[in-house]
Structures are given as C-alpha cells and as structure tokens.
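Support request, please re-run this one:
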Amino acid sequence: MNKRIRKKMHRLLIEDVKIEISDSSEWRRKLETEVADREILIPSKDLRLLIPWRASILGKYNLQFSVKKVSFNEEQSDKEVLFIFTASDFSTVTDWSYNNLEII
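Re-run finished. Output below.
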C-alpha cells in the first residue's frame, strides 16, 4: 500500500483507538502506573480485541499506534492525565484524550 493511503488509514482509525484505550479499565490502570512521557506501543492484538469492527483493517495493513501519558498539572497529576495517541509510522497523526484517573 502506498504511503498516502497508509497514512489515511491511520487517520481513520486513531479516533477509535483513542476511545477504546481511554475507556479500557485495563489500559487506564496500565497508563496510571506508567512514567509520564514514555511512549507505549499498543499491541495490534489488543487493538483487534478492543475494536473488533476494525480488526480486519488493523490486521490486513498492520497498523501500529502508541500512547503516552502526559501530566500537565502538578497539583492534579495524581487525578488528571492527558493521553496522547500517535500513529507509529506517522508522528503527525495524533489525537489526545483528557482523563480523570479516579474513574477506572
């Protein structure tokens, strides 16, 4: 697949990745304990389980995404966190999600 179409596929799916990872208790717990600004590759196996309606696209094109936690307020860093999602092959394809860590 050419690079332009591959980038479009990442753009198409990043919203689903963001929503499902942000809503997953397992991933929220994992990210809560993670060091800020450390990028974590989201295994395609996890994505196919979280987003079954997109599993064929993820598998066929082997699309990769990563997430990192960014603390943005020292006073609230134990309660509030920002997750930044990135397409592994295209650093310009990003999305973010603000999360309350008290809700898991």
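The chain has four helices and four strands. The longest strand covers residues 90-100.
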